[in-house]
Amino acid sequence: MLPQSLKNLTDQLSCLPGLGQRSATRLAFYLLNQPQKDLTTLARAINEVKAKTKTCPRCFNLTSGADLCAVCSDKKRRQNLICVVEDILDIVSIERTRHFNGVYHVLGGLISPLDGLTPDKLHIRELAGRIKQMAGQSAEIILALNPTTEGDTTALYLEKLLTPLKVNITKLNRGLATGSDLEYADETTLLNALKFRH
C-alpha cells in the first residue's frame, strides 16, 4: 500500500522509544512533506550525533570532542560535591532545577542481578577512584538514584563501599514517590529533594 521507501522509514521510526506503528506513520508522512533542505539538516544531525558525541572520562556524562564534559571542566562548580546518578537523563533533570553546583558521576545503570547488572558492570570502581583522589577535601556524595528496589540496592551497596573512605554520603529526600524516575520529576520536586537531602 505504501511506497517501499516510506514503509522503510516508518519501520525505522517505529523502533524509537515511545513511537508505535501509528505514530511512526504520522511522523513519516510529516517528514515527507517537509522541504528537502530541512530533511538534509535532520539527516546530518542524526549522522553526526553518534560520531561527534563522546563520553567524559571522569564522570561518564556526554561531551562533544572536548576531553572533559562541560560540567567537569566548569571551574565554578564544586568538584568535591558529586551527585551520583543512574544515567545521563538524570543529569538533565537535575540541571533543570538550576540549584545544583557540584559535579556528577553516571553509574550507567543500577545493580540488578536478574538483568545481569552487577557492580562490576557499572562505573562504581571509577567513582571510588575519584573519591580517593579527593582525600582531605571534605567531599560530599549525593546518591540521587531512583527510589526503586534496584536504586535502593545500589545506594546500599555504595554506602557500604564508600563509608570507609570517610566521605559524607547523603541521599535525595523522599519527595519522590517510590518506583518513580528522576527523569520524569518536575523541577520543584527535584529542587526540594536536593535541598533537604539526608
UniProtKB/TrEMBL annotation:
<dbReference type="Pfam" id="PF13662">
    <property type="entry name" value="Toprim_4"/>
</dbReference>
<dbReference type="GO" id="GO:0003677">
    <property type="term" value="F:DNA binding"/>
</dbReference>
<keyword id="KW-0227">DNA damage</keyword>
<keyword id="KW-0234">DNA repair</keyword>
<dbReference type="InterPro" id="IPR000093">
    <property type="entry name" value="DNA_Rcmb_RecR"/>
</dbReference>
<dbReference type="InterPro" id="IPR034137">
    <property type="entry name" value="TOPRIM_RecR"/>
</dbReference>
<dbReference type="Pfam" id="PF02132">
    <property type="entry name" value="RecR_ZnF"/>
</dbReference>
<dbReference type="InterPro" id="IPR015967">
    <property type="entry name" value="Rcmb_RecR_Znf"/>
</dbReference>
<dbReference type="Pfam" id="PF21176">
    <property type="entry name" value="RecR_HhH"/>
</dbReference>
<protein>
    <recommendedName>
        <fullName>Recombination protein RecR</fullName>
    </recommendedName>
</protein>
<keyword id="KW-0479">Metal-binding</keyword>
<dbReference type="GO" id="GO:0006281">
    <property type="term" value="P:DNA repair"/>
</dbReference>
<dbReference type="InterPro" id="IPR023627">
    <property type="entry name" value="Rcmb_RecR"/>
</dbReference>
<comment type="similarity">
    <text>Belongs to the RecR family.</text>
</comment>
<comment type="function">
    <text>May play a role in DNA repair. It seems to be involved in an RecBC-independent recombinational process of DNA repair. It may act with RecF and RecO.</text>
</comment>
<dbReference type="GO" id="GO:0006310">
    <property type="term" value="P:DNA recombination"/>
</dbReference>
<keyword id="KW-0863">Zinc-finger</keyword>
<feature type="domain" description="Toprim">
    <location>
        <begin position="80"/>
        <end position="177"/>
    </location>
</feature>
<keyword id="KW-0862">Zinc</keyword>
<dbReference type="Pfam" id="PF21175">
    <property type="entry name" value="RecR_C"/>
</dbReference>
<dbReference type="GO" id="GO:0008270">
    <property type="term" value="F:zinc ion binding"/>
</dbReference>
<dbReference type="InterPro" id="IPR006171">
    <property type="entry name" value="TOPRIM_dom"/>
</dbReference>
<keyword id="KW-0233">DNA recombination</keyword>
